[in-house]
Write a sequence for this structure.
């Protein structure tokens, strides 16, 4: 087990390189990734992202839930506050799901999933909980309907066995 002392020691090594100096609050690559909390699927590592290139939101299953949408709304307000609305903001949202996701184990708990998605249990089939390819299509569609015009949304599925991603939903603009 990694304890607090070890975390402090590791941080000192990382901070000693000075790579944090000059990083801005806004992602330098104009990217937000929505991914899963699974430790095998760190979006920055999987996608080869450098520090400061992307904002990363992680939750169970990497799903676009009402809570995720609220978080995105809050982040949009941060961008507005920091840039006065004139900054570049986020130009690309990537939804990153993966194979062998633990959320599939929660299919046996429909009430829990219904609460998570804030939908009636009878509507859970539309969330495609047990199929990452279908689920990434569901979530990218939600984003495309909810985000401002001109931003790009894509959907990716990471294979935990091979380390490769498949582009399930190619990048395209939001509808509204």
């Amino acid at each position: 087990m990694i304890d607090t002392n070890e975390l402090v020691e590791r941080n000192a090594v990382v901070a000693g390189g000075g790579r944090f100096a000059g990083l801005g609050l806004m992602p330098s690559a104009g990217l937000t990734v929505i991914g899963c909390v699974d430790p095998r699927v760190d979006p920055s590592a999987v996608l080869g992202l450098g520090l400061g290139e992307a904002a990363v939101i992680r939750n169970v299953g990497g799903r676009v839930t009402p809570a995720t949408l609220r978080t995105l709304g809050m982040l949009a307000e941060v961008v507005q506050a920091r840039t006065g609305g004139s900054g570049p903001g986020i130009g690309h949202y990537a939804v990153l799901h993966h194979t062998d996701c633990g959320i599939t184990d929660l299919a046996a708990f429909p009430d829990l999933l219904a609460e998570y998605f804030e939908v009636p249990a009878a509507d859970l089939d539309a969330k495609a909980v047990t199929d990452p390819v279908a689920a990434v299509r569901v979530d990218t569609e939600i984003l495309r309907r909810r985000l401002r015009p001109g931003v790009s949304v894509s959907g990716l599925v990471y294979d935990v066995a091979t380390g490769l991603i498949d582009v399930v939903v190619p990048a395209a603009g939001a509808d509204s």
